[in-house]
Specification:
The protein contains twelve helices and 13 strands. The chain is an alpha/beta fold and about 400 residues long. The protein has two domains: about 30-90, DNA polymerase, domain 1 (Orthogonal Bundle), CATH 1.10.150; about 95-390, Aldolase class I (TIM Barrel). A nine-stranded mixed β-sheet has the order 3-4-5-6-9-10-11-12-13. A two-stranded parallel ribbon has the order 1-2. Strands 7-8 form a two-stranded antiparallel ribbon. Strand 10 (about 230), helix 6 (about 240-245) and strand 11 (about 250-255) form a beta-alpha-beta unit. Helix 1 crosses helix 2, helix 6 packs parallel to helix 8 (about 275-290) and helix 9 (about 305-320) runs parallel beside helix 10 (about 345-355). The chain is elongated. The structure holds S-adenosyl-L-homocysteine and iron/sulfur cluster.
Length: about 400
């Protein structure tokens, strides 16, 4: 079935062999399952093997192309089959607990996932596109000293369903599911995904990969892999796998030009240093057939923002021959943060040196600062509310 014609597709007249009892532990959520896994669970619960592939295709399109959450609306499946599916399976995404809209249009959602945990998701509208900043973990195992999420311990990895569910939730809120028969809208409100929310995506590799595969699937959300950017702090052994198994754009939280400084800002550097990281980065674009790597560089007053830093950064990129652009991020403050943002003049000078060396050096405009939605400010509100400023400072190593 292709876009625009669900009601004309053939209605199935299956022999129903689905068992009537509920699986242990409640209904099975279909959201986040790979096609293969969905096929397995359908067969396990009574869909005839011969039909399973076709049923996956149909259900898949209802869920990911049309945004349907109720089996009864899947009109190209026999009524009785829909009823049986409904007994065993569910189509669930994280629940929105609260939504804040910034003066600049940025939306921050707090969503609740199983176990009562919460993560933040941010939608950033721009003139010609809209980017959803998706979280991959509740908290983070890493402790980058400038990052608010890093002050929250890892609670758990998100499932693939919870990751792709954030995208589905945002499409609900933006009212962006297509209507059957309507002309295809080429300018999407949600046109890009960045894995730059809470957590280190490469420490939750399989779930992130499965979720992004769903986002890219041609019979669903259909985002090109060029519109998906994964940001990592530098989990070197997973970079080659990212190229092979996901193939999205890569961004790297670089932030420093000497191991001495990077060890403090991005402590994973003690495990895989700048040289090891650059070697892994150099092979990425070719291996993934993707474009330039984005070097994210947070501008911290007096810490990593000198002219020498800019020159060292250029030298490193040239030495390793990495196709790169450098995204300068003005530091976003959070309560108890041990750093200050570099001045605008300093940031401009730094950008200028890089630009004159032949690399794009855009300065990221902080978005949604008034609602604590900007980069590095995310941390679940419950955590925030529970902790006093003193505790936060103590955790940031200032107490
Ligand atoms: N864990 C991944 C992705 C999440 S962080 C990573 O580290 O890349 C997303 C981006 O926000 C990273 O580049 C991170 O370095 C940056 N960031 C974190 N805290 C920040 C802050 N307070 N101000 C500006 N950028 C920040
Ligand atoms: Fe974790 Fe990324 Fe924050 Fe570092 S910058 S603590 S890796 S979320």
């Amino acid at each position: 079935m292709t876009a625009g014609a669900p009601k004309n597709a053939p209605v199935t007249q299956d022999v129903l062999t689905l068992p009537r009892k509920l699986p242990e532990g409640g209904k099975i959520n279909l959201v986040g399952l790979t096609r293969e896994k969905m096929r397995e669970v359908l067969i396990e619960h009574g869909t005839p093997e011969k039909q399973a592939k076709m049923r996956v295709g149909q259900i898949w399109q209802w869920i990911y192309q049309w945004g349907v959450r109720d089996f009864s609306e899947m009109t190209n499946l026999a009524k009785a089959y829909r009823a049986e599916l409904d007994k065993v399976f569910s189509i669930e995404i994280p629940e929105v607990v609260s939504k804040q809209v910034s003066a600049d249009g940025t939306r921050k959602y707090l969503v609740k996932i199983a176990g009562g945990h919460e993560v933040e998701v941010v939608y950033i509208p721009e003139e010609d596109r809209g980017t959803l900043c998706v979280s991959s973990q509740v908290g983070c195992t890493l402790t980058c000293s400038f990052c608010h999420t890093g002050t929250q311990k890892l609670v758990r990895n998100l499932t693939a369903g919870e990751i792709i569910g954030q995208v589905m939730m945002a499409r609900d809120d933006l009212e962006e599911w297509p209507t059957p028969g309507a002309p295809k809208d080429e300018t999407r409100l949600l046109s890009n995904i960045v894995l730059m929310g809470m957590g280190e995506p490469l420490y939750n590799f399989d779930n992130v990969r499965d979720a992004m595969k769903i986002a890219m699937d041609a019979e669903g959300i259909q985002l090109s892999r060029r519109r998906i950017t994964l940001s990592t702090s530098g989990v070197v052994p997973e970079i080659a796998r990212t190229a092979e198994e996901i193939g999205c754009q890569l961004a790297i939280s670089f932030h420093a030009t000497t191991d001495e400084v990077r060890d403090v800002l991005v402590p994973i550097n003690k495990r895989w240093n700048i040289d090891a990281l650059c070697q892994a980065l150099a092979t990425y674009p070719k291996a993934s057939n993707s474009e330039r790597i984005t070097f994210e560089y947070v501008m911290l007053d007096g810490v990593n923002d000198t002219d020498e830093d800019a020159h060292r950064l250029i030298a490193l990129i040239r030495q390793h021959n990495i196709p790169a652009k450098i995204n300068l991020i003005p530091f976003n403050e959070w309560p108890g943060a041990p750093y200050k943002r570099s001045s605008n003049n300093r940031i401009r000078k730094f950008a200028d040196i890089i630009y004159k060396a032949g690399f794009a050096s855009p300065i990221r405009t902080p978005r949604g600062e008034d609602i604590m939605a900007a980069c590095g400010q995310l941390k679940s509100a419950t955590e925030r509310a529970r902790k006093s400023k003193k505790q936060i400072e103590a955790e940031a190593g200032l107490g």
